[in-house]
């Protein structure tokens, strides 16, 4: 845009300069034809008198100079315009490279945040539960291996271990769902978000109106942003109700907004869930905005290119 404006301004300036050049060309042409109409032996020009015998030669020379000036102005306009457009193109390429670096850094950061989350969930959840299962089975084995086997106690311990194993499997499934939701690939964003809403402990009003499918990266970014926002609403905001709106926007954008009526005060902390959402959205070429004043409500908006 600035290059186009500068080119138009240059054209206007050169157009003003061209006016006297055209006028001079017309005067030179008239002077070259002076022998056909002159009544005297000289032809008067502004500031000088030209003998009629010399008028054709002087007029032709002036006409050539005027035409050369017009061609020079046209060439000058072309050279300057190309230089402006080239610099604008270079600036655009630099900006695209900077945006690409930002998205790449966001993708790396999102992967690091996700790895840290998985590591924390395994360490704090599944790992101690599996350790407990192993200890419980060890106790059951002792009950059966003693001089007086206690089958009833061993049976009770095995049942306890079975219950803990089922809980561990459930946690692993939830963890796998946090890494990737297969329903998102199979049935699309609407169905995937409906599954998230069905598992939410906070009542959620879901309003998804999208035509067709977007790219996998775009849908995944919106899916995980909504999931994280609903998780925060339940764990930290003490919300009683949430609303999720997803739309296609002009310009090929996939837009989502999650709002809760909780206590507010949410912030993006390094390594936290919202930090991961921001980097994941940035890696998809989108933007993320959090509005969470103390006292609420909290609103998270994400917008990503549908084709990403």
Top keywords for this entry?
single chain; about 300 residues; alpha+beta; Heat Shock Protein 90; 3 domains; five-stranded mixed β-sheet; two-stranded antiparallel ribbon; 7 strands; ATP-binding; transmembrane helix
Main beta sheet:
5 strands, mixed
Q: What fold name stands as the CATH topology of the largest domain?
A: Heat Shock Protein 90
Assembly classification: single chain
Number of strands: 7
**Which strand order spans the largest sheet, edge to edge or round the barrel?**
3-4-5-7-6
Secondary structure layout:
Elements: H1 2-32, H2 34-37, E1 42-45, E2 48-51, H3 55-145, H4 151-179, H5 182-187, H6 189-199, E3 204-209, H7 216-235, E4 242-249, E5 253-260, H8 273-283, E6 287-291, E7 298-305
Parallel strand pairs: 3-4
Antiparallel strand pairs: 1-2, 4-5, 5-7, 6-7
Helix pairs in contact: 1-3, 3-4, 3-8, 6-7, 7-8
Catalytic activity: ATP + protein L-histidine = ADP + protein N-phospho-L-histidine
EC number: 2.7.13.3
Transmembrane segments: 52-76
Describe the structure.
This protein is 66% helix and 14% strand. The protein has 308 residues and is of the alpha+beta class. It has three domains: 2-104, no CATH class; 112-179; 186-305, Histidine kinase-like ATPase, C-terminal domain (Heat Shock Protein 90), CATH 3.30.565. The strands form two sheets. Strands 3-4-5-7-6 form a five-stranded mixed beta sheet, with helices on one face. The chain has a two-stranded antiparallel sheet with strand order 1-2. Strand 3, helix 7 (216-235) and strand 4 (242-249) form a beta-alpha-beta unit. Helix 3 (55-145) packs antiparallel against helix 4 (151-179). The radius of gyration is 38 Å and the shape is rod-shaped. The protein starts with a helix and ends with a strand. The mean pLDDT is 79.
């Amino acid at each position: 845009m600035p290059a186009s404006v500068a080119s138009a301004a240059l054209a206007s300036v050169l157009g003003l300069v061209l006016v006297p050049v055209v006028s001079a060309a017309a005067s030179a042409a008239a002077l070259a034809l002076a022998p056909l109409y002159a009544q005297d032996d000289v032809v008067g020009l502004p500031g000088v008198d030209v003998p009629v015998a010399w008028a054709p030669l002087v007029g032709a020379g002036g006409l050539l100079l005027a035409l050369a000036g017009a061609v020079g102005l046209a060439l000058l306009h072309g050279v300057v315009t190309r230089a402006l457009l080239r610099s604008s193109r270079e600036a655009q390429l630099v900006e695209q490279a900077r945006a690409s670096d930002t998205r790449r850094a966001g993708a790396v950061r999102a992967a690091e945040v996700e790895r840290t989350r998985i590591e924390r969930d395994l360490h704090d959840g599944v790992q101690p539960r599996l350790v407990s299962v192993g200890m419980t089975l060890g106790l059951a084995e002792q009950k059966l291996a003693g001089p007086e086997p206690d089958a009833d106690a061993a049976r009770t311990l095995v049942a306890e271990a079975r219950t803990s194993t089922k809980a561990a499997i459930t946690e692993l499934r939830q963890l796998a769902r946090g890494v990737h939701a297969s329903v998102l690939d199979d049935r699309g964003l609407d169905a995937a978000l409906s599954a998230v809403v069905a598992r939410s402990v906070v009542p959620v009003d879901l309003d998804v109106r999208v035509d067709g499918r977007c790219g996998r990266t775009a849908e995944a970014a919106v899916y995980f942003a909504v999931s994280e926002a609903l998780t925060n609403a339940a764990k930290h905001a003490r919300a009683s109700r949430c609303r999720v709106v997803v739309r296609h926007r002009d310009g090929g954008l996939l837009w989502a907004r999650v709002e809760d009526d909780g206590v507010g005060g949410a912030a993006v902390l390094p390594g936290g869930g919202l930090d991961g959402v921001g980097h994941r959205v940035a890696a998809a070429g989108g933007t993320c905005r959090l509005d969470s004043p103390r006292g609420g409500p909290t609103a998270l908006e994400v917008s990503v290119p549908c084709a990403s």
